[in-house]
Each structure stands twice: as structure tokens, then as C-alpha cells.
Amino acid sequence: MTTTLPLEGRSALVTGASRGIGAATARALAALGARCVLVSRREGPLQDLARAIGRGAVALSGDLAEPAAALRVAEAATAALGAAPDIIVHAAGSFPLSAVEAVSDAELDLALSLNVAAPLRLTRALLPAMRARGAGHVVTIGSVADRNVFPSNVAYAASKHAVRAIHETLRAETRGTGIRATLISPAATDTALWDAHDPDGSAHLPSRHEMLRPEDIAEAVAWACTRPVHVDVEELRLARS
Ligand SMILES: NC(=O)c1ccc[n+]([C@@H]2O[C@H](COP(=O)([O-])OP(=O)(O)OC[C@H]3O[C@@H](n4cnc5c(N)ncnc54)[C@H](OP(=O)(O)O)[C@@H]3O)[C@@H](O)[C@H]2O)c1
Questions:
Q1: Is 134 helix (H, G, I), strand (E, B) or coil?
Q2: For residue 229, with 0-12 CB atoms within 10 Å meaning exposed, 13-18 middle and 19 or more buried, which class applies?
Q3: H-helix or E-strand spanning residue 237
Q4: Fewest CB within 10 A of the end CB: N or C in the chain?
């Protein structure tokens, strides 16, 4: 007897898929049957992951901090899949740790272009196809910092608060269309995002063993994506117990 997986026949575009939360999410969605388009800058890790998860996964490299990249990625993903993806997971992100007086222009520009503008541009490019289909799911990886602020985290907090505003606006504009939108807001999660900040060596940062695992976040994404179509998971906030 053959069993149908919950996301069989569905497709997912996952940004930030070369490692961390994005990679774990792509693995989880593929294990549930989805065909994934994997997006980040580094082609090698994306291709390795595409091979590992199978199901026709496609590696698509691009620098989402560039204004033109989102549209290019949306068009290439649609061409590779033969249709716009059913699910988008916005997981690419940068994590500057700087105070108001110290934040550099480069940190601020990257936080705003990669964390805020890129997911908005990507959603903008793919939303018309979702509307035409009367279905689609936009999952945004927010952060505990999309509601709470911490010292020396100004550009990141600003970007994640903006991401939540975009998520809520999207929900308001798509209500009743069949399009779902989920914000998943994790606390500190043990990924390479922390490598530059040496969390185990700092009294002000959580140590790695106290953090969530990328798979914890991926499971939450997978859960939201596999609810019956009449259930729209608005927001999940994940903290360490
Ligand atoms: N880890 C945490 O504690 C934590 C907590 C809450 C929320 N989050 C959020 O979760 C998301 C994923 O974080 P993570 O912990 O998995 O981070 P990560 O391990 O550093 O992974 C970041 C991903 O983004 C990609 N990326 C970086 N710059 C890019 C660019 N310019 N264009 C395209 N892709 C780019 C990276 O791949 P390439 O290097 O190949 O481009 C990588 O796949 C982020 O939005 C982050 O803010 C993380």
C-alpha cells in the first residue's frame, strides 16, 4: 500500500537554505513530500543539500541583498518548477550585534536589504500567482527580536520588527483569498549565525547548549504548512524551556 505524504505535489522555495534554519526547514519539508527550491549565495552547499533531500530539489544561488535578486529568483524558481511555488519560507538573514552609537552603515544596510526588503520583494513577485491560484503559504522566520528589543541589537531588532509588520500587512491584504501567512519567531538557535559573536565566551549572550536547535524551528514550519487548508497559523513563538 502506498501512502501519500502531506506535502506530496507541493513545492516550497526556501531562502537561507545552505545551512542553519533554512537548511533544516528544506529537509523537513522535503521529508513531507515537497519539492524544494533552495536559495542562498553559495551554490556548493545548496547543490549538496538538493542531492541529499532529492524529490527534484533545485539549487538557485543569488545574493538576496541585491535589489534585483528577488525578482530573478522568483522567475527562475517558477521556471524550474513549471509554476510558482506553493510555499515560500523566508529564512535568509544577517545578525549584526551593534549599539545605536556603534552600528555601521554596512550592518544597517545589510539588515534592511536582506532581512526586510528581500522577503518583501520575493513575496511581491510571487503573490500574484498565489492569488490567481487561490492558495499559497508565506512563512517568515522572524525572531524573539520582532517584539522584544535587546541592547546592542538595534539594526537586527529594527529589521525583525519590520518583518513582523510586513507579515501582518500581508495577512490583512490576503484575508479570505486562500493565501496563508505564518510568522515563526524563534529565540536563540544554535546555528552559524552566532559564529562571529562567540556566545560561549560572552557573559551577555546565551551559551550554545541553552539554545534551540534548527530542527526545532523546521518542525514548527512543517507543522504550520501541514495544517488543513482552513487553518491559518498566524504566529508561533518558540522559546527554550
Ligand atoms: N540563529 C538564531 O539564533 C535565530 C533566532 C531567531 C531568528 N533567526 C532567524 O532565522 C533565520 C535563519 O537564521 P540562521 O540562524 O539559520 O542563520 P545562518 O545559519 O547564518 O544562515 C543564514 C542563511 O542565510 C543565507 N544568506 C546570508 N546572506 C545572504 C544573502 N545576502 N543572500 C542570500 N542568502 C544569504 C546564508 O547562506 P549563504 O552564506 O550561502 O548566502 C545561510 O543559508 C534568519 O532570518 C535569522 O534572523 C535566527
A1: coil
A2: exposed
A3: strand 235-238
A4: N
**Catalytic: 156?**
yes
User: If you measure from the C-alpha of residue 228 to the centroid of ligand 1, how many angstroms do you get, rounded to a whole number?
Assistant: 29
Residues facing residue 155 across a β-bridge: none
pLDDT of 3 over the 90 cut: no
Report pLDDT digits (tens) over 134-189. 999 999 999 999 999 999 999 999 999 999 999 999 999 999 999 999 999 999 99
Tell me the per-residue pLDDT of 8-43, one tens digit each, with 9 for 90 and over. Answer: 999 999 999 999 999 999 999 999 999 999 999 999
The ligand 1 atom at the shortest distance from the C-alpha of residue 189 is 3
Pick the CATH number of 11-238 from 3.40.190.10, 3.10.450.50, 3.40.50.720, 3.30.70.100: 3.40.50.720
Backbone dihedral angles phi then psi of residue 117, each to the nearest 5 degrees: -70, -40
Helix axes 214-225, 20-31, angle to 10 degrees: 40
Q: What is the model's pLDDT at position 2? A: 75
Contacts of 115 (CB under 8 A, 6+ apart): 93, 94, 156, 159, 160, 162, 163
Q: Which atom of ligand 1 sits closest to the CA of residue 142?
A: 7
Q: In what order do the strands lie in the sheet with 87-90?
A: 58-61, 35-40, 11-15, 87-90, 136-141, 179-186, 235-238
Residues with CB under 6 A from ligand 1: 16-22, 40-42, 63-65, 91-95, 114, 141, 143, 186, 188-189, 191-193
In the numeric block, the cell 513575496 is attached to 123
